[in-house]
Design brief:
The protein is mainly beta. It has one domain (23-143): Jelly Rolls. The protein has helices spanning 115-122, 131-140; strands at 20-22, 25-32, 37-43, 48-53, 58-65, 68-72, 75-79, 84-87, 93-96, 103-110, 144-145. The longest helix is centred in the last third of the chain and has 10 residues, at 131-140.
């Protein structure tokens, strides 16, 4: 893990100049230590992160631009610029860009756990990635995607 040195990470730069393409979203890691991973995310219109659980991490988003729709522990919620979204470990959540505009946000998780390695595993899988592969790779990195809801569900 990278130890944290004092300084400023400029707006157009990230950790080791990394930029991940995660299923059409751009993630730029800003800082990583054993205790925390932060990244800037750009989500084009129509992109989303399906409902999932971080069993061992708390996750946060500070919304910079745009409007997110969330599913938080079974409840719909909306986040807008300046809002801090808190996603406690073990609580199911999904993140959706239904706004028709690009969204920018700062994410961070604590502790880092295996998320950095997961992003490398998902990087550049492309728009035709097999959902079962994404679910399996994520589960191997301690992120558990929930099964899709069906019309027949009680």
């Amino acid at each position: 893990m990278t130890s944290m040195a004092p300084g400023i990470v400029k707006s157009r730069h990230g950790l080791d100049e990394i930029s991940w393409n995660i299923l059409g979203q751009t993630y730029v890691p800003k800082q990583m230590t054993e205790e925390c991973l932060s990244w800037h995310a750009t989500l084009p219109p129509g992109t989303f992160v399906p409902p999932h659980i971080h069993p061992d991490q708390d996750e946060y988003l500070y919304i910079l631009e745009g409007r997110f729709d969330f599913l938080l522990d079974g409840q719909d919620a909306v986040g807008e610029p300046g809002d801090l979204v808190k996603l406690p470990r073990g609580i199911p959540h999904g993140i959706f860009n239904k706004s028709g505009k690009t969204i920018k946000t700062l994410f961070w998780v604590t502790p880092t756990a295996q998320l950095y390695d997961l992003f490398w595993a998902l990087h550049n899988l492309g728009p035709d990635a097999d959902p079962a592969q994404i679910v399996a790779v994520s589960a191997a990195h301690s992120i558990d995607f929930l099964p899709p809801e069906t019309e027949d569900a009680p």
